[in-house]
Write a structure and sequence with these properties.
Layout lengths: L11 H16 L4 H14 L3 H18 L2
Helix pairs in contact: 2-3
Length: 68
């Protein structure tokens, strides 16, 4: 018995490659600190922004209580 052929409607690797190329272009010439600030801002503004802020707040809180 053979499997039915499924037509691909989304190419995950092509999507990843395009996203990486866009990110490289957008951060070209930035220092490491500028890249970190850029990526943090993008994460906070993106579709998972509220979740990201909660994770960051929890991480910062754990670090403060650990004394690091």
């Amino acid at each position: 018995m053979s499997r039915p052929t499924v037509k691909k409607t989304f190419d995950c690797l092509a999507f990843k490659d395009q996203a990486q190329a866009r990110l490289i272009e957008e951060t070209r010439g930035m220092t490491a600190e500028q890249e970190i600030a850029y990526l943090t801002r993008k994460a906070e503004e993106g579709p998972l922004g509220e979740w990201w802020k909660k994770v960051k707040k929890a991480t910062d809180s754990r670090r403060a209580s650990a004394g690091t």
